[in-house]
Amino acid sequence: MSYAYDPQIQPVVDYLPVIALSDIDGTRSMLAAASEQFPPYAPGEGIVQETISAEYQGTQVQLLVIRPEARSQDAAPAVLWFHGGGFVLGDASESLPFLEQVVLATGAVGISVQYQLSPEANYPVAVNQGAAAARWVAEHHDQLGIDPQRIALGGQSAGGAYAAGLALKLRDEQGPAICQLVLDVPVTDDAVATESVLAYTDTPMWDTDNARRSWHAYLAGAQADQYAAPARAADLSGMPPTFIAVNQFDPLRDEGLEFARRLAQANVPTEAHLYAGTFHASAALAPQAEVSIRQLQDLTAAFARAFAANILEEAK
């Protein structure tokens, strides 16, 4: 089926790899071989990187941390980010280029969580690692040089499920407090039954079959709860202010928009943007396109507004 992609994105479509979760090991090998054709992430000028092995109450998790080289005397905000990959693919380092953009724009400390993948580790392993990461970061705020009142969560695709599920978990377990939730093309609903997920059976990077297989790998037959599939939450009140970005020709489009609608109905400050002519995660794959630039800038600006608003609130 053909789709009305943005003209600046269309040329990329023909060169994209086929992601098929019918063969997870084969897809991992294919992506690893493709990544070898590109240099690994290296911090840009003025950015430093470190890897931290964190542990909280017996749960261990590795954190990839980037920050401005020139540290301010004031405590910095922090972004705790979860990479995408359908619960089964990806690596925390893949998020560092985007986090560097956020760090440069806001002065924040960017923290990419290296959670364990499914099917080797099923729910709730990764969510528990995310909770451990959030609590470790909050408790070690002095070591990290961050403001514990300005910790934000975010994630892309399946990372959005982790971030939103973690926001619900932290709300229910009394913290630490989260000042902003940013979800980029998020997974939220294990029902796999929205209009967009049923319609987009052949879209690039993600399709209906992959959506179903990803949930099967993640849950391994277990029943999803709200921390696994945030769409299952009966009550979304008390969630942090939320920004959601969705792509037009993406199976995940409608579950992202529905999650935004329900957050707004629960009186959570919510903003949702749909980017025309785009496919799943196209902003990362066609970053030169004007629509991609807008999407990445909007995600970054959502963090910046939250951090600035929190400073004003603390000053009152």
Structure write-up:
InterPro entries: AB_hydrolase_3 (IPR013094), AB_hydrolase_fold (IPR029058), GDXG_lipolytic_enzyme (IPR050300). The chain is α/β, with parallel strands linked by helices and 316 residues long. The protein has one domain: Rossmann fold. It has 11 helices and 8 strands. Helix 4 packs across helix 6. The N and C termini lie far apart (55 Å).
What sort of overall outline do the alpha carbons produce when their principal axes are compared?
globular
SS elements, strand count:
8
How many DSSP helices? 11
Low-confidence stretches: none
CATH class: Alpha Beta
* Name given to the CATH homologous superfamily: Alpha/Beta hydrolase fold, catalytic domain
Number of domains: 1
Strand content: 15-25%
Helix content, binned percent:
25-40%
Distance between the termini: 55 Å
Give the SSE string: HHEEEHEHHEHEHHEHEHH
Largest sheet: 8 strands, mixed
Strands of the largest sheet, in order across it? 1-2-4-3-5-6-7-8
Radius of gyration: 18 Å
Corresponding CATH architecture? 3-Layer(aba) Sandwich
Q: Find the CATH topology.
A: Rossmann fold
How are the SSEs ordered, and which strands pair?
Elements: H1 10-13, H2 24-35, E1 47-56, E2 59-68, E3 76-82, H3 96-106, E4 109-114, H4 125-139, H5 141-144, E5 146-156, H6 158-172, E6 180-184, H7 195-199, H8 208-219, E7 242-249, H9 253-265, E8 270-279, H10 282-285, H11 290-315
Parallel strand pairs: 3-4, 3-5, 5-6, 6-7, 7-8
Antiparallel strand pairs: 1-2, 2-4
